[in-house]
Amino acid sequence: MDNSKKHNWNTWYAVVLIVLLLQIVLYYLFTRYWK
Amino acid sequence: MSTLDWIILFATLAGIIAYGVYKGRGQHGSDTYLMAGKNMPWYVVLLGIMATQASAITFLSAPGQAYTDGMRFVQYYFGLPIAMVVISITFIPIFQRLNVYTAYEYLETRFDRKTRLLTSVLFLLSRGLSTGISIYAPSIILSSIMGWNIYFTNIITGGLLIIYTYTGGAKAVAHTQKLQFLIILGAVLIAGYLVVDELPNGIGLSDALYVAGKSGKLNVITTEFNWKDRYNIWSGVIGGFFLALSYFGTDQSQVGRYITAKDTTESRLGLLMNGLVKVPMQFAILLLGALLFAFYCYQPAPVYFNDAAYEKYKNARPQEVAEIQTQYDSLHAIHMQSAYSIAGYRGSSQTVPDALVQTFKANQKQLDALHDTVKKRIVTYGYSSDNNDTNYIFLYFVKHNLPKGLVGLLFAVIFLASWGSISAALNSLASSSLMDIQLLNSKKEIDEKQELRLCRLHTLGWGIFCIAVAMFATRMGSLIEAVNILGSLFYGTILGIFLVAFYIKRVNGTGVFFAAIITEAIVVLIYNMDIISFLWLNVIGALLVVFISLLTLIKLTAN
Fold it and tell me: Which of A24, B394, B409, B411 matches a 20 to 30 Å C-alpha distance to B58?
């Protein structure tokens, strides 16, 4: 049986996108720091 | 390689084949063979997706790319997590609900048979050719390093995996990918640790990062926009998004992985986890390349990393090479001295003088220029069929710096990485050519036993085809780009068809079919004009199909 309704998918999507954004910021700082 | 290395190499490869054959038992029809009985948990889906995408090219070219061009290649993956979210929302529920064998099967339900045929043929063409390149890529490198015959190596790289892919289908592919990817990750982590550990006494990770950074190798984010520039944040987020959307959403080699999941939840979790871990993993692999650059600032480095080609050049023109070598050695000695002086200042917490950094950079430029001269001459004189040494950098380090046993394991990793992506490709090619072409037009009823026999025949046929492509693939330029460019010529169009299918309900089969044909012609034309980076071709292709399909709607309304 599909239990997909048990998951709050919108939260999952938001987490994936926020983690990406955080990474881009961190990589930008990394680039600036070691330039 | 030592005897221990050979034993580890062969034991790892034989172990994977045996494991694949064992895990792939119990096949009785296309359902088990092509979709692994739809029973896979999310973590198997995740590792399958990652192993399919990460071919040997990833582990050979990426560190080499960071070594030469810096880490900006990671931006190419920035669109991937966004694509994972879109696929989870739109694509997965539809594929799971319709219980399709291939992504293109859905297009017949939504449009018509000819659209299904067109997309599956485009897929078979692009994936068939690129899988051939995926066999050739590690083979040319391994044959050069080991001194093996390239044709023989192609057969080992592309042939042995057919044993378990042929017998066990998608189930064998999924289980071997799981094991392969864990071995690969473990070995690469150890190699990364050893790059830092092998740095000379008194040189730490921070010193290595400093020299790599000053040489422009830690340029993870580049914000300057240029249509012809391949890797910057704009082409990475936008172009990378479209590329990842078409690769994961419409390429059967990926769709075939997550439709093996037991339900929508497991498929989604696998893809979303991929969205979380893919970028950091790629960052780590590229960082390994940047650290290798620093490593060779503090150690004697070869003029040319493809040492077999360099040796041929040396034997044929000893006088010329001796002059280059002397020049290189004296330049590199000064370069090393500057690198140590920089570390000395940093160790004593003093500011590194700007003049010293400038000398270091200038030396690096001279070393690069000398390397380019050697590269050009090796290609011109025909001492190697591989016209670059970028892909040899990581294995050069492995061969000369890793302890016994680990060398064999790292060489096994190159084979495993190829096998992971090639086996998934063969399984998906067989799914599509059987379901979308042969059985689509067959009126004969066939039983499960015949179905299984056909699945296996198609797998074997594609295996032979891809090995044949590998045999012809010589002088393809930078391998990683060749594969991506090939994909981009078709990917945009295929994605456009799917976008119309999902989001523009009023467009019919004929409208989208002609939109796709016109788009493909325009994309090929733009590619030939060479005015734009290949990543943007994908965006243009997808948007053009949508736009032309919408135009057909206007025409219909006017009529």
Answer: A24
